[in-house]
């Protein structure tokens, strides 16, 4: 239950001139409102010049029923309040001035005055409470309406200069009590200021709430820590964006995630000033991104007009990047990649995109494959967004000259593992895959076996690629950079382009020829193949000239057979084209 503050209580027998007397005040035993007990303060009516029997509503009209007729109409939004000048001007310096000016400009002083109030904080609901207060009726002040009421009291200049115990002092006292005593109500107050943002900032409500939240959060920063689940920004579904063992989920993350971006920034700034751990700060920012971007993407944000949604996302993303803690490991690589994806899609400030790219590139050597996985959710999109990883790798290559060789090899292994993971996706385009394959220089890989495996998986997932495209994808494969096992697989792999397998067969024959020439071997030939076996007893002897000639003939025969196969293939392709026409 929310905290409730009551003032003043209307007494039907009250008379003009009755003095204010405090009867009872009750406050909760604990600082947080749990629903078992709430704040309550009951006060008898202060001195009021006029008592209204009731405040009736008729459609959009509010009419104060009293012994005398109403002589003042105040228009607030779409509602009209038929009131008495005496009751209202005695509490509001602002209304006092307007009524005085109206009287000066009118010939008759007895006519009903019409006043229109624009931009009143809180609108009609808040003004209804103010009217009841001015007539001496009981009003209920809660954490949800105290901020609009406080701002409206300042707007109408309802200060102690006019009457002791006026609305500004009453709301100020309750507001201070809530901020100091109740964590949940502080958030309710902060949420209630979203519609009165300028007034709330000018009157320091946002700052006071933010500092109170920061103080309580930092005082309990070691109270608990759990694994934190992050969400893909701008994606409909959620996923575990942080696999780090050092992730945190402080008890206050969920409450902060309900705040609007400007209030969230204010709170985070206050928390940062108090020196909270950078990992906790980074986790809270990621948790907020989870909640907020999900609401916008799922269409749960009903308040923001559609034409403003894009701009709001852009501004929010830029703000998040600017407030990220700079300490190492304060935020995960995966979260930074999601943020980079969002920023690229929204076309935010290019300098901020570069900041993210460089930051991920700096920690790339410590990353795992799972850290690079950023999902897409479009029907025809690849499962993972490889473009965002490509941007980071390009940034890494630009600055890799400063890194030692072992770290470079770590990145090469990481990228090859990533390629193996994404190559199975049938929606991954050849251009994207080829760009990932070619982005790293050759010296970053001590061996190309994993690269070959990734290419093979890609060709398996894309069986309808043309021969030219398959050749284009495989052009990075070099015979001398593969292990013997991988070479054997290449020569027997019918998914690879024929030109590549032929080259590998010839190179293998040459290698075997050199090996036999230097080490000696047993050699025999069948009708379909040449079988070369190295002698098990490792006897060193030179091959005879006849054996070498026979090997050369075999190589030439293989070349001739390959050419014939290519000729047949071309003829068959032409025939198929004619049949299809």
From TrEMBL:
Boundaries of every NPH3 domain copy: 250-511
Topology with respect to the bilayer: Peripheral membrane protein
Cell location: Endomembrane system
Domain BTB: 70-143
GO cellular component: endomembrane system
GO biological process, one term: protein ubiquitination
Record pathway: Protein modification; protein ubiquitination
Pfam families linked to this entry: BTB, NPH3
Keywords annotated in UniProt: Ubl conjugation pathway
Annotated family: Belongs to the NPH3 family.
Record protein name field: Putative SKP1/BTB/POZ domain, NPH3 domain-containing protein
Protein species of origin: Lupinus albus
């Amino acid at each position: 239950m929310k905290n409730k503050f009551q003032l003043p209580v209307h007494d039907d027998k009250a008379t003009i001139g009755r003095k204010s007397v405090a009867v009872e005040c009750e406050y909760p035993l604990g600082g947080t409102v749990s629903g078992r007990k709430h704040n309550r303060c009951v006060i008898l009516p202060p001195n009021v010049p006029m008592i209204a029997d009731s405040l009736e509503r008729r459609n959009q009209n509010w009419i104060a029923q009293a012994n005398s007729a109403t002589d003042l109409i105040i228009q607030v939004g779409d509602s009209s309040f038929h009131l008495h000048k005496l009751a209202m001007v005695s509490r509001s310096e602002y209304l006092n001035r307007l009524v005085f000016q109206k009287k000066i400009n009118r010939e008759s002083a007895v006519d009903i005055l019409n006043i229109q109030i624009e931009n009143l904080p809180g609108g009609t609901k808040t003004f209804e409470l103010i009217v009841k207060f001015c007539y001496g009726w009981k009003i209920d002040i809660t954490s949800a309406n105290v901020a609009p009421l406080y701002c409206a009291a300042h707007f109408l200049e309802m200060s102690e200069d006019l009457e002791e115990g006026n609305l500004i002092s009453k709301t100020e006292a309750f507001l201070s009590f809530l901020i100091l005593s109740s964590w949940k109500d502080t958030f309710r107050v902060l949420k209630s200021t979203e519609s009165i943002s300028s007034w709330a900032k000018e009157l320091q409500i946002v700052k006071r709430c933010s500092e109170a939240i920061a103080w309580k959060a930092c005082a309990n920063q070691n109270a608990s820590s759990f694994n934190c689940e992050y969400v893909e920004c701008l994606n409909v579904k959620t996923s575990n964006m942080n696999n780090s063992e050092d992730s945190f989920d402080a008890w206050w993350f969920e409450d902060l995630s309900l705040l609007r971006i400007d209030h969230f920034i204010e709170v985070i700034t206050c928390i940062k000033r108090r020196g909270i751990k950078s990992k906790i700060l980074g986790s809270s920012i990621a948790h907020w991104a989870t909640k907020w971007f999900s609401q916008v993407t799922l269409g749960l944000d009903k308040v923001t007009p559609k034409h403003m949604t894009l701009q709001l996302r852009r501004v929010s993303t830029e703000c998040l990047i600017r407030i990220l803690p700079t300490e190492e490991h304060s935020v995960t690589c995966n979260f930074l990649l999601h943020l980079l994806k969002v920023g690229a899609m929204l076309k935010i400030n290019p300098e901020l995109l570069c900041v993210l790219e460089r930051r991920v590139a700096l920690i790339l050597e410590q990353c795992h494959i799972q850290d690079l996985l950023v999902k897409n959710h479009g029907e025809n999109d690849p499962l993972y967004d490889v473009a965002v990883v490509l941007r980071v790798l390009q940034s890494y290559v630009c600055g890799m000259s400063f890194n030692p060789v072992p770290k470079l090899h770590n990145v090469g292994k990481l990228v090859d593992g990533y390629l193996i993971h994404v190559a199975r996706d049938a929606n991954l385009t050849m251009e994207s895959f080829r760009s990932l394959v070619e982005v790293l220089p050759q010296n970053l890989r001590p061996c190309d076996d994993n690269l070959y495996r990734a290419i093979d998986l890609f060709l398996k997932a894309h069986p309808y690629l043309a021969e030219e495209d398959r050749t284009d994808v495989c052009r990075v494969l070099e015979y001398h950079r593969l292990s013997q096992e991988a070479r054997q697989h290449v020569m027997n792999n019918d998914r690879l382009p024929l030109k590549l397998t032929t080259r590998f067969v010839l190179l293998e024959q040459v290698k075997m020829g050199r090996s036999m020439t230097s080490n000696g071997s047993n050699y025999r030939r069948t009708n379909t193949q040449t079988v070369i076996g190295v002698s098990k007893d490792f006897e060193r002897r030179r091959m005879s000239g006849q054996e070498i000639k026979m090997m050369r003939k075999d190589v030439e025969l293989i070349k001739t057979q390959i050419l014939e196969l290519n000729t047949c293939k071309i003829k068959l392709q032409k025939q198929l084209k004619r049949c299809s026409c």
